[in-house]
Every structure is written in structure tokens, then in C-alpha cells.
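Q: Sequence in, structure out?
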Amino acid sequence: MKKEQILVAVIALVAGLLLGILFFGGKKDAVPVGGGVPMGGGAPADYQQRIAEVEKIVAREPGNVQAWIQLGNDYFDTDQTQKSINAYGKALELDPNNTNVLTDQGVMYRKMGWFDKAIANFEKAQKLDPKHLQSLYNLGVVYAQDLKQPAKAAEVWERYLKMDSTSPTAQQIKAMMEQFRSPSGK
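A: Exactly. Output:
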């Protein structure tokens, strides 16, 4: 492949990613910190089987925090928002200072439109670990996209960029902040 073809492919890939973020509310912020790929729609058979198995585990071992987290992640990945919130809630009862679970539950609160609860989760994660980038990113997303408060989003994202200015997420943040500044973005 020629250098020009590779460059065009990379630019197309980045443009597609940014368009996906703009049109679908930023799927990046909808990926649980623990991993996984949002599936949309119903649960595929492998998820259904895994969910059934993990539900049995938490029924037998209600103190198994990792099982609750896995269940929350699987519900997250299969678009079962309320069930995900509840599973993460059980995990947080057992491990209230888990910044990743706080963030994932916050993303689910955001999906339900419960922005105050989402913000509370992201802020708690930040108090526990001021370097937790995923919670900082998502806090900015709520301010920018949901509450239409670009100044607050920019303030949050400036903190993010002080810790990480080169990752793909940092580039995405810079692009969103640039939209705030452009006349058509206001």
C-alpha cells in the first residue's frame, strides 16, 4: 500500500470514530471500564448463558464482589441498564470505593437520564482517585452533552488533559472542546 492510501485510511477511520461519537452520544463513554463492547438490543446466546451462570453464583455467594461486577458488565454490554445499575450497586455495597464500578454505574445512570446521580458517581470516583481518567472523561461528557454546560465540561477536561494529552481519548476531548469554541458549535 502507498503512504497516501494508508494516510487516507487512517483519516477515514478517525473521522468515522468521531462521527460515531457525535451521532451516538459517545460510545467511548459507554464502555465499562472493566472492558466489554456495548452490544445494543438483546443479549446474544453467549451473554445469556454467562449472565445465567453469574446470576447463579451471586445467588449462592452474595458477597462475591467480582461476580457482581461481571454481572453488571454483562448487563451493561447487553443494554440492560437498570439491571446493570442494580448489579453495580450490589458490588458497591461490598466495595464502596471501587472507582471503576462507580464510573460504570455512573455511565448507566447517564443512560437513564439520571444526570445528578451520574455526576455524583463520577465525582466520588474523582475524590477517591483524582487520577482516574475514565470518571473525569465521563463527568465532562455529562456536562457537555447532557447538561449543555460547555464551560464546566472544559474545566473538567482541562484537568484530564493535564494528565493525558496524547491518547485517542485526549484527542477526542480536544476535538469536542474545539467545537465549543467554534461559532457553529455554540
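Residues 70 and 114 are 23 Å apart (CA to CA).
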